[in-house]
Amino acid sequence: MTAMSFLMVLPALLLVAVLFDISSIGSSSVSTNLASDAVLQTFNDVEGDIPILTSQVLMEEDKRVIESGESLSNSRKSLKDDLQGELNSKYELYGNSTGLKVKCQVRAVDSSAEPFEVEVNTTVWVEKGNISHMENLTQEVSITSPQCRVADPIPFIKCKYYGGVTNTTERIIYGSSLENYLNYRGVPNAWAYENATSPLIIKKCPYDPYKSHGKSQGFIILKNCIDNGYFHESSDGSCFLCRLEGKSTCPHYGFETFVVPAPSPNNTVNSAPCSSDHVIFNDTNGVSGTYPGNHVVYYKNGVYYFKLFLDNGHQNKYGII
Fold this sequence. Notes:
It is built from nine helices and eleven strands. By secondary structure, the protein is α+β, with helices and mostly antiparallel strands. A hairpin with a 2-residue loop joins strand 2 and strand 3.
């Protein structure tokens, strides 16, 4: 090729080289964008999976405690370890099938400021090639959602060695076990709780403010609340995680429900242990944790009286006085 011919061809060669570089850059940019999209989509999937897996772990541990009657020594650690195991299994398989590296470290499972929720703290890290995303997450997981139906473990733990309890789909039936438990502790008038019942599934009471319970005509809201088995926020009642440890009271903001005496054909009993569950099961200070309440007849059907026993503090909370 002569020098003149080469000079004539050179611009075409340079144009091809430039177009090749542009094509390479464009291809690299598309590849980077696809990797970035995959990383962010996977992160969002992990973020959505954490509450679902937490709900499963909460229900499984709750079921184990209820079936065994044995409390957890450290519910927060047990739940943290269980959740970590579920996440490790899920994302090890996920990484093998997608080529992404996924890691989710559970930093803590703890009580929430909202008593009907559990707080989960995690660190999520996702990587593909040279693209990565890491974020610390704090998520609140409801214990009263359709995806997380948990039962109250306290009665199963407290009454295990006093005859045990049975249950229907909605209520715990004590038989003689609660009377035996209270008698063992020396609590007066324990017999008032022969054949008592309390709610099985933890459900948040929708009747707010709570004073409406007693202010309603004929105590109709109080009766509906008891019939539906609702739980109420309480600074004295224990949170769900401490209930798994067999504690009826704890330093966290928790909840309470009513332990309901069996209907009676007479109305002669004026005083018995207060019907709030955190009072009934407060055995941390011997007898003194379970104090008396005065009878409150919330319904009568012509044959039986339906009543609770509540101290002045609880009667004021629920608008009875």
